[in-house]
Design goal:
6-stranded antiparallel beta barrel, 6-stranded antiparallel β-barrel, Pdz3 Domain
């Protein structure tokens, strides 16, 4: 009887050991979980006080909540895409390029589509975006924040500042964004960039204002950019740059990059310039600027010395004058050094371009020039600046 009992006991132990060995080999986590469960049961956790309606300190939630519904996605399509030169494409391949953060597609001979962003600025359905987002598009669709898609028409655009104005007709539009004051924006201010990078959906990134009044960048003809390090990527073109109050202070337009991605140097068109262009387009369908018909050249130190000019001379050399143009009729001659326009000193070619462009066509401009060592004042009636030619390969 004892032998029989002992044999049964030995067999039971052997089976249990075999089961334990199999579980330990094939499913060790079962044993670990069993041990962990017994440990966790003896741990007391302390949870912090939490108010679901409270906003975290330092959060920009209110600014985003206020401005994000007014930012839209813009889908454009072309029936035939021909190769064309992008701004900045004259740089060496190894050099960083200025790239629009816009979903560009390779040139093809079949329908193509691209993605950008825009900002709803009025309850009537007026949208601000970039000219290069809608340039040459055959079809434009706007996706609202609530998911609706509507057709858009182009009211007008200005390639020289890269601003375009669209119009959509839809009921119950989101609240338009509030326009900020550029005078309140300072270097070091926190800003938020809102758009649809890479087509992943609406996103928000933050950064600071790195610089104001950036020009000589080589992106547009007329430049006065806000520079920011907020992460901006393809698809953000035409999107909103807002302050921490949720007010629109700029329209994102380009980045400085050698790989197409954000490198912490982005540029936005300031709201005062964008608003000025928009109002001109809404009133006239286009933007008109003053023009005098001269070929200016910056004064380098070597050029000043060759002309026998004093070392502190600032201005631009008029190297050519259009025959029969406004400047020629006003008495401007090649070789003149233009010092000022309407009493405002001219430092370089871009300053002259901006100064003349701000004078409405048909109005008079008083030009102070230096000719053979003598200053003289000439009166020129400005003409209308010709529209820029399309860039082609």
């Amino acid at each position: 009887m004892m032998n029989r009992f002992w044999l049964l006991f030995a067999q039971t132990v052997t089976i249990l050991l075999a089961v334990w060995f199999i579980v330990a080999t094939l499913k060790p986590s079962w044993l670990s979980n069993a041990q962990m469960n017994s440990i966790v049961e003896n741990v007391t956790l302390k949870e912090g006080a939490y108010d679901g309606n409270a906003i975290s300190p330092g959060s920009y939630h209110d600014a985003v909540k206020k401005s994000m519904p007014a930012v839209v996605n813009i889908f454009t399509s072309k029936t035939s895409a021909k190769p064309k030169t992008r701004k900045g494409s004259d740089s060496k391949p190894s050099d960083p390029l200025f790239k629009f953060f816009f979903g560009d597609q390779p040139p093809q001979e079949e329908p193509t589509s691209s993605l950008g962003s825009g900002v709803l600025v009025s309850p009537e359905g007026v949208i601000l975006t970039n000219h290069h987002v809608i340039s040459d598009a055959d079809d434009i669709d706007v996706a609202l924040a609530d998911g609706r898609k509507v057709k858009a028409k182009v009211i007008g655009s200005d390639p020289e500042t890269d601003i375009a104005v669209l119009k959509i007709d839809a009921k119950q539009l989101p609240s338009p964004i509030s326009l900020g004051k550029i005078e309140s924006v300072r270097v070091g201010d926190v800003v938020l960039a809102i758009g649809n990078p890479f087509g992943v959906g609406q996103t928000v990134t933050s950064g600071i204002v790195s610089a104001m009044g950036r020009d000589h960048v080589g992106i547009n003809t007329f430049e006065n950019f806000i520079q920011t390090d907020a992460a901006i990527n393809p698809g953000n073109s035409g999107g909103a740059l807002v302050d921490t109050r949720g007010n629109l202070i700029g329209i994102n337009t380009a980045i400085y990059s050698n790989n197409g991605g954000s490198m912490g140097i982005g540029f936005a068109i300031p709201i005062n310039l964008a608003k000025q262009i928009m109002e001109s387009i809404l009133a006239n369908g286009s933007v008109t600027r003053g023009w005098v018909g001269v070929e200016p050249q910056n004064l380098s130190k070597e050029l000043s010395e060759s002309l026998g000019l004093p070392g502190n001379t600032t201005g631009v050399l008029i190297s050519g004058v259009l025959e029969g143009g406004p400047a020629a009729r006003g008495g401007v001659k090649p070789g003149d050094v233009l010092l000022a326009v309407n009493g405002n000193s001219i430092q370089d070619v871009r300053g002259l371009l901006n100064g003349i462009a701000q004078i409405s066509p048909g109005n008079q401009a008083k030009l102070t020039v230096l000719r053979k060592g003598k200053e003289m004042e000439l009166t020129v009636q400005t003409g209308t600046r010709p529209k820029p030619k399309k860039q082609i390969n």
